[in-house]
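worker-3 :: picked Barrier-to-autointegration factor-like protein
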Amino acid sequence: MSSTSQKHKDFVSEPMGDKPVTALSGIGDTLAKRLEEQGFDKASVVLGQFLLLRKDMELFTDWLKDTAGANSRQAGSCALCLKEWCDAFL
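worker-3 :: tokens ->
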């Protein structure tokens, strides 16, 4: 990925707070609804899953595909967003 979206830049540039899952890069309304149905209703909860998977981007993208039906681009975008957020704030 050579460039990142404005949504990605906005997410990575500030603390997590109480952001909705739709604040994550790659997560639109449809994927957000599927994640919320699985109990992942906030960006911080999705971050928790990323951390449980030891920040392994491949494991996380597979999890996001299986859990929410994300495609490779969406899952990769979300994983990169969370990785860069972790690099900046953890």
